[in-house]
TrEMBL record:
PANTHER family assigned to the protein according to its UniProt record, in alphabetical order: SSRA-BINDING PROTEIN, TMRNA-BINDING COMPONENT OF TRANS-TRANSLATION TAGGING COMPLEX
Species per Swiss-Prot/TrEMBL record: Halalkalibacter akibai (strain ATCC 43226 / DSM 21942 / CIP 109018 / JCM 9157 / 1139) (Bacillus akibai)
GO biological process: one example: trans-translation-dependent protein tagging
Superkingdom: Bacteria
Function noted in UniProt: Required for rescue of stalled ribosomes mediated by trans-translation. Binds to transfer-messenger RNA (tmRNA), required for stable association of tmRNA with ribosomes. tmRNA and SmpB together mimic tRNA shape, replacing the anticodon stem-loop with SmpB. tmRNA is encoded by the ssrA gene; the 2 termini fold to resemble tRNA(Ala) and it encodes a 'tag peptide', a short internal open reading frame. During trans-translation Ala-aminoacylated tmRNA acts like a tRNA, entering the A-site of stalled ribosomes, displacing the stalled mRNA.
CDD domains according to UniProt: SmpB
Family: Belongs to the SmpB family.
GO molecular function: RNA binding
Entry's transmembrane regions: none
Signal sequence residues: none
Protein name listed in UniProt: SsrA-binding protein
Localization (cell): Cytoplasm
Length: 157
């Protein structure tokens, strides 16, 4: 089921994004959905693995985001991996076009959540990490985990 995060119901997170990319800037966008898609999302049946956003004809679309079919949807059900339009201001789209024309930048979805009854997606303009960057990040996380563990043990004893 969806997890509470302040005033948002987080439905899906892209945990690989922070591992594979340096997130430079984030934007919140609305999603254009069909009725069975939002019902399936509210049930927590969404996956952002391998999804990406692309700008075409001045509009942004979310590709490869998998929303499972709704069980009671019968013939009105949706296609699970169809391209979904994202709602952003023209100025924001133009900023992203400028950023993504630089080499190595792409647009990745980070999180999908329900905010005030509407489905929102947090997208980030990201630069790809090299293998040594990924290893460095893992080393930093391990060191932080060890420090936190030592501090907890010290406070107990």
């Amino acid at each position: 089921m969806a997890v509470k995060d302040k005033d948002r119901n987080v439905i899906a997170q892209n945990k690989r994004a922070s591992h594979d990319y340096f997130i430079e800037e984030t934007y919140e966008a609305g999603m254009v959905l069909k009725g069975t898609e939002i019902k399936s999302m509210r049930a927590g049946r969404m996956n952002l693995k391998d999804s990406f956003a692309r700008i075409s004809n001045g509009e942004m679309y979310l590709h490869n985001a998998h929303i499972s079919e709704y069980e009671q949807g019968n013939r009105y059900n949706h296609e699970p991996t169809r391209a979904r339009k994202l709602l952003l201001h023209k100025k924001q789209i133009n900023e992203m076009i400028g950023l993504t024309q630089q080499k190595g930048y792409s647009i990745v979805p980070l999180k999908v959540y329900i905010k005030n009854g509407f489905a929102k997606v947090l997208i980030g303009v990201a630069k790809g990490k090299k293998n040594f960057d990924k290893r460095e990040t893992l080393k930093r996380q391990d060191a932080k985990r060890d420090i936190d563990r030592a501090l907890r043990e010290r406070q107990k004893g």
